[in-house]
Amino acid sequence: MKKMLSAFWKNEEGLGTLELLLILAVLVLIAIAFRKWIVKWVNKIFDDTNTEIFKNTDNPSTPAPSGK
């Protein structure tokens, strides 16, 4: 068992997967830690975009004429 564990540790093929999992875990932890700030930021972006859309349209509540 000890030889098998040692061989697994020395095998570099699994390290790429392990590194990716560790990076993913760190990103998830950061997202959880800053989730309130991230949600506020995304909502502000959508609100600002919505405001700009309504400012730049003549009358957003009525559909554009189809030309028929």
Could you explain how this protein is built, in words?
The chain is mainly alpha-helical. It has one domain (2-54). 75% of the residues lie in helices and 0% in strands. It has three helices and no strands. It has helices spanning 2-10, 13-33, 35-55. The mean pLDDT is 82.
Helix and strand topology:
Blueprint: H1 2-10, H2 13-33, H3 35-55
What is shown here, in short?
By secondary structure, the protein is mainly α. The protein has helices at 2-10, 13-33, 35-55.
The unreliable regions are none
Strand percentage lies at under 5%
Q: Rg from C-alpha positions?
A: 26 Å
Structural class: mainly alpha
Order of helices and strands: HHH
Major sheet: none
Compute the number of helices: 3
Taking all residues together, what is the mean pLDDT? 82
**Number of separate domains:** 1
Fraction in helix = over 70%
Beta-strand segment tally: 0
Question: Distance between termini?
Answer: 79 Å
Shape: elongated
Defining traits:
68 residues, mainly alpha, 3 helices, 75% helix
